Amino acid sequence: MSPPWIKPTNWEHVLAELPAGLSMRQLHVIDGLRYACAMAEIAYARLWRHLQALAASFDDRSEGDMRPIAQAMLDAWSIVDHAARFQTLLPQLQGLPRVEKGLWIRQLDSFLVGIEDLRNGVQHITNNREGVLPERQIWGTLIWCKVSPEGQNFGATFAAVPGISKEGDQIFFLGGPARPAPPGAVQLEAWGHRVSLGRITLALGGAAARLDALVRAGGLTGIGEAAPTIKGRDWLTQGTMYLLVETTAPGQQGTPPERLDEILRAEGGIRIPVDGEQDRTP
To answer: HSE (CB half, 13 Å, CA atoms) of 218?
Structure first.
């Protein structure tokens, strides 16, 4: 079962065709945006499926097993991190129309309200001289709705609390009679902020699609020295390890170590020194 109303970005199409004349800086920023969005989408889909499985197996109250909650928090905070990176990278993309870029960034920022504060709250704990910590759990609380196989809400809302709770702590669940929660809603509440991880993921995908539309319409111009010929993109590669063994007859002198280094370096390799020999690895 996949998250309702969240359609993963088709990266074989979105930002797959870029104009000639872009600089390496521009290409690297675009790749950074692509991967920040893709990683957030992957984390959200994985988080949503994990939370639905927890809801399906829930029996009155589950307590004492931190692994399922840690797994959920890993993906939840990954979404926060990658949304913050996308938000930071977008203004660094040169070559977009200035006015439209400014409006676009402000619109995206409105969807990502609280993201920077959430991320900074955790990232800067060690830099805070006063040692200020939140009144609740450092990693916050995850709240979500159980969804049927058809994508409809069951009306049941769940929470994952990573750590200790004291008497009197309250959890504000999703929805209600006058305001039903959207199917598949997942929210993270931490450091005085409450964000919808699904809406954040949607906003990133929408921003990537909008950038793709601008690029296809000729709205991105090259700034700086044009990039050289591109070798490849999004590729996996494999290296090969060669072992050079030299045998010598008794009393015969072998190839000097300096010459072996020269031969191997020409092939892109290094030589591992034998016991007692000086390490010449560059």
So the answer is: 0
At position 191, the amino acid (one-letter code) is W
Q: Best-predicted range by mean pLDDT among 71-75, 123-127, 243-247, 260-264?
A: 71-75
CA-to-CA distance for 28 and 12, rounded, in angstroms? Answer: 18
- Residue-averaged pLDDT of the chain: 79
Q: What angle do CA 215, 219, 225 make, to 5 degrees?
A: 85
Residue 192 CA to residue 189 CA, distance in Å, equals 7
Gyration radius from the chain CA atoms:
26
d(Cα 264, Cα 282) in Å, to the nearest integer? 12
Q: Are 50 and 68 in contact (CB under 8 A)?
A: yes
178 contact partners, CB below 8 Å, separation of at least 6: none
Q: In what order do the strands lie in the sheet with 153-160?
A: 153-160, 141-147, 186-190, 193-196
| Residue with token string 């030299």 | 246
Identify the DSSP state of 277: S
Q: Tell me 96's DSSP state.
A: S
- Report the distance separating Cα 113 and Cα 183, nearest Å: 22
pLDDT of residue 119: 76
CA separation for the pair 61, 51 (Å, rounded):
15
Classify burial at 118, counting beta carbons within 10 Å of its beta carbon; exposed 0-12, middle 13-18, buried 19 or more: buried
Strand partners, 144: 158, 186
186/145 Cα distance (integer angstroms) = 7
Question: C-alpha dihedral over 51, 52, 54, 59, to 10 degrees?
Answer: 140
Q: What DSSP string describes 116-168?
A: HHHHHHHHTGGG-TT----SS-TT-EEEEEEE-TTS-EEEEEEEE--S---TT
Inform me whether the pLDDT recorded for 171 exceeds 70.
no
